[in-house]
Every structure is written in structure tokens, then in C-alpha cells.
Design goal:
This protein has 123 residues and is mainly alpha-helical. The chain contains 5 helices and no strands. α2 packs across α3 and α3 crosses α4.
Length: 123
């Protein structure tokens, strides 16, 4: 999102973020519908790969630094680590601070935005 849009239409941004997060959570609870929606727009995708990509994504929704927070809430520490990786391996050479890259101002609050608990891994 462009900074001008954030300044000009903050309620639009809030509504978009809330709807997106509700969609992510819904898809987590209804993976078959997620796969059907993906196939609708990309008919050649492999359903098993799409399912596994979604499962891997869900495993990374919560970090130790975001536990107990609503889906979408970001941690300074996580972003600081990301910036270090970008500087070390991503070719970023300009000064870059984590706080330049994200905001929690638009993350909705409430129990309906809490990520579902992680499923135990099969061994």
C-alpha cells in the first residue's frame, strides 16, 4: 500500500486488512474451499502442492514474538531479523530500519482475528 492511500483512506485500509485476515482464517478452517478457489483462477495447479503450501504457510503464522497477538500483528524483533537477512543475503545496501517496513496500526483486534492453534506435527 502506498503511504498516500494510508493517509487518505485509513478506514478503507482497516476494512481491507480485516476482510483479508478473516479470509485467511476461513481458509485455514476450510482448506478444500481454499484449493477450489485457487483452482478456479489457476486450473493447472497441483492440488497436493497447493494444500502443502497452505499448510506450510499456516505453520508460520505465529512466531515466538507474535504469540498471543491477532493475526497480522508484527514484531519489531522479527522485522529486525528480516532486515539483517536482507542486508546479508538480499543485496540491501541502503540504511534500512525495521520500523520503516510495517505498521500494526491497521491490525484488527478481537477474538475472531486470533490465529487458530497450530496442529501437532505428524511424526
Amino acid at each position: 500500500m502506498h503511504n498516500d492511500l494510508i493517509k487518505e483512506a485509513p478506514e478503507l485500509i482497516r476494512a481491507f486488512v480485516a476482510a483479508s485476515l478473516k479470509g485467511f482464517i476461513y481458509a485455514r478452517h476450510h482448506p478444500d474451499e481454499l484449493i477450489a478457489a485457487v483452482k478456479k483462477f489457476s486450473p493447472t495447479v497441483d492440488e497436493a502442492i497447493t494444500r502443502r503450501e497452505a499448510e506450510l504457510s499456516w505453520e508460520n503464522w505465529v512466531t515466538p514474538n507474535t504469540a498471543g497477538k491477532e493475526l497480522g500483528w508484527m514484531s519489531d524483533k522479527d522485522w529486525e531479523q528480516t532486515v539483517e537477512v536482507l542486508k546479508a543475503y538480499g543485496g540491501v545496501t541502503t540504511p534500512l530500519e525495521a520500523q520503516q517496513l510495517y505498521t500494526n496500526d491497521f491490525v484488527p483486534t478481537g477474538s475472531e482475528f486470533m490465529p487458530p492453534p497450530a496442529e501437532s506435527k505428524k511424526t
